[in-house]
Amino acid sequence: MEPTSRLRVVVGEEELLRSRAVAAVRAAVLARNPQAEVHELAAAGLPPGQLADVLAPSLFGGHRLVVVTGVHEAAGALADALTGYAKAPDPDLTLVVVHAGGKRNEALLKAFRAAGAAVDECPKLTSAGDRAAFVRNEVRSSGGRISADAVAALVDAVGADLRALSAAAGQLVSDFGGSIDADAVARFHRGQAEVSGFTVAERVLVGDRAGSLEALRWALQRGVAHVLVADAIADGVRTAARVSSLASTNPGELARVLKMPPWKVKKAQAQSRGWSIEGLQQALRVAAELNADVKGAAASADYALERAIRRIVAIRAQTGRGSRVRSGR
Amino acid sequence: MTAGPADDVWAHVVGQPAAVAELRAAVADPAVMTHAWLFTGPPGSGRSVAARAFAAALQCPTAGRHADGGTCHSCRTVLAGTHADVQAVVPEGLSIGVAEVRELVRIAGRAPSQGRWQVVLVEDADRMTEQAANTVLKMLEEPPARTVFLLCAPSLHPDDVPVTVRSRCRVVTLRTPSADAIADVLVRRDGFDPALAAWAAGAAGGHVGRARRLARDEAARLARKAVLDIPLSLVSLAACLDAADDLVSAAQEEADAAAAALDGAETEAVKASLGVGARGPGVAAASRGAGVLKELEKKQKSRATRLSRDSLDRALVDLAALYRDALVLHAAGDQAPPLAHPDRRADAEELARRIGAEGALRRIDALLACRTALEQNVKPRVAVEALTVALRLPA
Question: What is the C-alpha to C-alpha distance for residues A302 and A220, in angstroms, rounded to an integer?
Answer without folding.
Answer: 8
